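Progress note, sequence design subtask.
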C-alpha cells in the first residue's frame, strides 16, 4: 500500500520527495531523506556548476540510494548545471521556473528521470508532451516561489489532464496531507517546509525556531505586483516589502530589498531581514524531527487513515 508507481519509477521505498530548496537543500539533507527511503534533492538554485558538482559528489559519499538535483531554469548557470547532472549520472532532475524542453533530449538520453514542477494544467500537458516522466503539481500554499492555484484544486485537475504520475506539493507535512494528496490523484508528495525543520537540515537554528513558532496565518506573499510571488514568514523585511509594494514602488527597487536575503536567513540566522521562505503549513509544525521520523510518521499515519477510509 505504501508503494506507488513513483517508487518503481525512481527506485525509492516511500513515495515522498524532498523539495529542492535554494540554500537549504544541500547534501546533508538530500542524503538523509534518501537514506530514510524518500527521494532527497539538492537545490542548484543560482549556484555555479562547480558547487553543484561538489554537492552531488558529497551526497554520493553519504548515500548509495537514488537522489535528484533541482535546477532553476532561470539561473545564469542552468546550461552548465544541465550538463553536470549528465556527467555525474544523477538519477533524477526536477526543474523550476520555466520549461526544460531544451535539455530534455540530453537528459533522457542519459537515462535521467525528468520531473518538472508545474503550477498549471497547461504546463503539465506541455511537459508530458516534451517527455517528462512525472510532474510535481505545486499549490500556492507552498513556501518559496508560487503560482495561483491551491494544491486542492490543482492536483486533481493535473491528474485528469496527464497520464504520467503526478506528485502533489504545497501544504503537505503529515499523514493526513499525504492521504489527501493520494485521494486527489497524486502518486507521491513533495515536501518542503516540514524538512526545513528536520535534524539533518543545516539551516540556522533561528530560522527553524521561526517556523516552529509560526501560526497558520504567519506567512505572506510578496512580489505579486512584479509577477514573481514568493511565500515566506512575516518579518520586518516582508512588511517593508509589502509597504513599498502597496505604495507602487518599481519591481527593481522592491527586489533590491531581497538580494541575498535567503542566504541571510539560512546562513546568518537573520530572522528580521532575511527571507524566511516557508509554506502555510508552518503553523502545524511543532517539533524538530529526523528525516526518518518525518517520513515514517507520515507513512504510518497515512496508512492507518486510508485503512479506515470508507
Ligand atoms: C526555503 C524554501 C526554498 C525553496 N526553493 C526552491 C527552489 O530552489 N526550487 C524549487 O523548485 N522549489 C523551491 N521551493 C519549493 C519546494 O521545493 C516545495 O515544492 C515546497 O516547499 C512544497 O510546499 P511546502 O513548503 O508546503 O511543503 C522552496 C521552498 C522552500 C520552503
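Output:
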Amino acid at each position: 500500500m505504501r508503494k506507488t508507481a513513483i517508487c518503481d519509477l525512481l527506485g525509492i521505498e516511500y513515495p515522498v520527495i524532498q523539495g529542492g530548496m535554494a540554500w537549504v537543500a544541500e547534501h546533508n539533507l538530500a542524503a538523509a531523506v534518501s537514506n530514510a527511503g524518500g527521494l532527497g534533492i539538492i537545490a542548484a538554485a543560482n549556484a555555479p556548476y562547480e558547487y553543484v558538482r561538489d554537492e552531488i559528489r558529497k551526497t554520493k559519499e553519504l548515500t548509495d540510494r537514488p537522489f535528484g538535483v533541482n535546477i532553476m531554469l532561470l539561473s545564469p548557470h542552468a546550461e552548465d548545471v544541465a550538463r553536470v547532472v549528465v556527467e555525474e549520472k544523477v538519477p533524477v532532475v526536477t526543474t523550476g521556473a520555466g520549461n526544460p524542453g531544451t535539455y530534455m533530449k540530453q537528459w533522457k538520453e542519459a537515462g535521467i528521470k525528468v520531473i518538472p514542477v508545474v503550477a498549471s494544467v497547461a504546463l503539465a500537458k506541455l511537459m508530458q508532451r516534451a517527455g517528462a516522466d512525472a510532474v510535481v503539481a505545486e499549490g500556492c500554499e507552498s513556501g518559496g516561489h508560487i503560482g495561483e492555484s491551491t494544491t486542492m484544486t490543482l492536483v486533481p485537475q493535473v491528474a485528469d489532464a496527464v497520464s504520467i504520475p503526478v506528485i502533489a506539493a504545497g501544504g503537505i507535512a503529515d499523514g493526513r496531507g499525504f492521504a489527501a494528496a493520494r485521494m486527489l490523484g497524486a502518486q507521491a508528495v513533495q515536501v518542503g517546509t516540514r524538512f526545513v525543520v528536520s535534524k539533518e537540515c543545516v539551516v540556522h537554528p533561528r530560522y527553524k525556531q521561526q517556523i516552529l513558532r509560526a501560526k497558520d496565518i504567519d506567512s505572506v506573499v510578496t512580489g505579486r505586483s512584479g509577477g514573481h510571488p514568493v511565500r515566506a514568514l512575516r518579518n520586518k523585511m516582508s512588511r517593508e516589502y509589502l509597504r513599498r509594494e502597496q505604495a507602487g514602488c518599481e519591481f527593481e527597487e522592491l527586489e533590491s530589498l531581497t538580494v541575498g536575503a535567503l542566504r541571510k536567513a539560512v546562513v546568518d540566522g537573520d530572522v528580521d531581514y532575511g527571507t524566511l521562505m516557508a509554506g502555510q503549513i508552518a503553523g502545524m509544525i511543532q517539533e524538530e524531527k529526523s528525516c526518518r521520523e518525518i517520513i515514517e510518521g507520515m507513512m504510518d499515519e497515512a496508512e492507518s487513515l486510508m485503512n479506515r477510509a470508507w
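The mean pLDDT is 95. Work on this subtask will continue into the next period as scheduled.
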